[in-house]
Amino acid sequence: MKFDDKVPIYYQIKNYLYHEMMTGALKPGDKLPAVRQLAVDLTVNVNTVQRALGEMITEGILESQRGKGNFVTMDEERITQLKGKLVMEQLERFYEQLHALNLTDEQIIDSLKQYIAQRGQQDDQRLSN
Amino acid sequence: MKFDDKVPIYYQIKNYLYHEMMTGALKPGDKLPAVRQLAVDLTVNVNTVQRALGEMITEGILESQRGKGNFVTMDEERITQLKGKLVMEQLERFYEQLHALNLTDEQIIDSLKQYIAQRGQQDDQRLSN
DNA sequence: TATAGTGTAATAGATAAATAGAACACTAGG
DNA sequence: CCTAGTGTTCTATTTATCTATTACACTATA
């Protein structure tokens, strides 16, 4: 896994697991890979994994069962709330940053549309190769 | 100045100065505040300021004149390119993150529109108080 | 030519993050 | 009961960042 060296790895691991849950790769009640296995998969130390999981357990999004494993909470509402929170965080940061770069609301929306449109073209090109 | 403790301060200072240039608060040829003054303003150490400025000088966006001060480059093209690069970085990260959260292109655009619309309402409320 | 204002550099210490390694606690299954 | 697989905890070490402090180099100007 590729990490951005500007933000703590344990923090990026949290976001990685969040995303796995949001996309359904990890469903409510699912068992996570063993911490030692995760450490190998992410080419990272066990303690770093543990730190990420520890925080998520505190948040109530994961549940730990000693000797068995770590599991995604069965509380689906909690996951829904989390997704909403993560989306909102992205929106806030994105808007704030582009606004700080002196773009108007309209320019922000337009630039996103244009970016997505161009991206679509690139995808088409890749598919046709 | 408030810093996000998840990313290096020198890095956040760079972004702060970038934004000052994008908004026109710092124009081509302008002299920056003295490094010691910046350190006071940002409640940060001189070395930390120097590290941020040093990188921007390497990038060619700032020019240093020993004994005189640090100046924004006169090369306006360079600033325009920088703005484009910064906007593109935000777009890429935003899209990637929301896509990873399993939102479709349409949902991404809609959520942004909705966010901006709601934001406008909040602004209106503040203005009427 | 002093002096104040500027950038630059170097050292040493503090803290947070990440690593390596070991040990401990619990569970399941033969 | 033993063992393999799991989570948990601890210590020690390294690295990056930030700070504090001092010193040096250059410029403008009184």
Write a structural description.
The structure is a homodimer of 129-residue chains. Chain A has helices at 9-22, 35-41, 46-58, 76-100, 105-127; strands at residues 62-65, 69-72. Chain A is elongated and about 55 Å long. Chain A has two domains: 9-74, Arc Repressor Mutant, subunit A (Orthogonal Bundle), CATH 1.10.10.10; 77-127, no CATH class. The first copy, chain A, is mainly alpha-helical and 129 residues long. Chain A contains five helices and two strands. In chain A, β1 and β2 (69-72) form a beta hairpin. The longest helix of chain A has 25 residues, at 76-100. The first copy, chain A, has a two-stranded antiparallel sheet. Chain A binds chain B through residues 6-8, 11, 19, 22-24, 83, 86-88, 90-95, 97-98, 100-103, 105, 108-109, 111-113, 115-116, 119-120, and chain B through 6-8, 11, 19, 22-24, 83, 86-88, 90-95, 97-98, 100-103, 105, 108-109, 111-113, 115-116, 119-120. The structure holds a DNA duplex (30 and 30 nucleotides).
* Uncertain residue segments of chain A: none
Estimate what percentage of residues of chain A fall within beta strands: 5-15%
Which architecture name of the largest domain in chain A does CATH use?
Answer: Orthogonal Bundle
Shape of chain A: elongated
Largest interface: A-B, 34 and 34 residues
Radius of gyration of chain A, taken over Cα atoms and rounded to an integer in Å: 18 Å
User: From the helix content, strand content and strand pairing of chain A, which structural class follows?
Assistant: mainly alpha
Number of strands of chain A: 2
Biggest sheet: strand arrangement of chain A:
1-2
Q: How many separate domains of chain A?
A: 2
Q: Can you count the helices of chain A?
A: 5
CATH topology of the largest domain in chain A: Arc Repressor Mutant, subunit A
Looking at how many chains there are and whether they match, the oligomeric state comes to homodimer
The pLDDT mean of chain A sits at 92
Please trace the helix and strand order of chain A, writing H or E for each element. HHHEEHH
CATH homologous superfamily placement of the largest domain in chain A: Winged helix-like DNA-binding domain superfamily/Winged helix DNA-binding domain
Main sheet makeup of chain A:
2 strands, antiparallel
